[in-house]
Protein 1
Amino acid sequence: MFDKMAKRRRIQIQPRSGVEKAFGQIVRTIREELNISQAELEKRTGLNRTFISDLERGIQGPGIRTIFRIAKGLETSPCSLLNRTAHSKYFEFPVGKESD
């Protein structure tokens, strides 16, 4: 039973839009503007390269500490990183339940 589960591939759904997608695209854009690899960003931030890849694809959402670490690694401010995210073409404001 466990052998079958281990052989199954985990399917990751790539988001088309949203906060995570927008943040990831901005991280990738800035990283490429600086001409650094994900491995170099890993060295600069201490974050795992696979996690960085997941962030860039919008699969993972960053916590506040991660935002600060990424910003420092990309030689920008957290404010600039979030501002660029909010103005990304992929950004959609998260909508939750309306409270009465």
Protein 2
Amino acid sequence: MTVNGAPLIEMADVGKLYGSIRALQGISLRVGAGEVTCVLGDNGAGKSSLIKIMSGVHQHDEGTYKVEGQEVRFGSPRDALNRGIATVYQDLAVVPLLSVWRNFFLGSEAERGVGGPAKPLDIEGMKRIAKAELLEMGIDLRDVEQPIGTLSGGERQSVAIARAVHFGSKVLILDEPTSALGVKQAGVVLRYVVQARDRGLGVIFITHNPHHAYPVGDHFIVLNRGRMIADRAKSAISREELTSLMAGGAELEALSHELERSTDRSLAAVGHELEEEAHELGIGRTPAGGS
């Protein structure tokens, strides 16, 4: 789905250099409203560099980056946020000892009254909004006054997602949201990813786990050493094919054959050594016809 005929995010042949190191090359992708685009890759594939360009931390060196059809070059994460692009990083950027509602409004606190340089905060209003927004996402907390550090990893991720939705994000970038979670908590986060998509957001789900990506993804992009090796719609790829691409595919098969040959040679060498030792100890096979 597109907005006014243009995708929410569109990249064409984007590249990134860090000195003489090429982190990204020839990256092209489109993110539409109400879709989950999964970007997969192992460590060093270029996922972090891609996130940083999208979110305004770094600028691209090659290609074009468009938001709703307009070419952009963000100078800061605030620029990206002002264009409706919110990023939920792996470390979540929450303050564990602060309450849930304070973290929900951190950096964007609501105030009461008009005029004056020091208006009072609308504390009751922020508590009410935080609880209502979390409840709408299916997160029923007993008390938004409790420190966010007392929540499970999945619940903290969900609060971060609900915060991004509340503040008008059109694109939600999730950086490895399930990497440090158990099976049950990962399932909780994936459910909220689907809810964000159903509310019309364009979701970019960064992960190295195809088993988490496939159930929620509409489109899959696989990176390897800074290059795209796959760009497929869900209808054009199976979970097994996605896993194979993620694992290295042909590279993994070649390595497997090499290890098999290496193992065969090692076993043959061990067998030869055992035969020699047995001969020296006089426990070899009795020659045919011997007594």
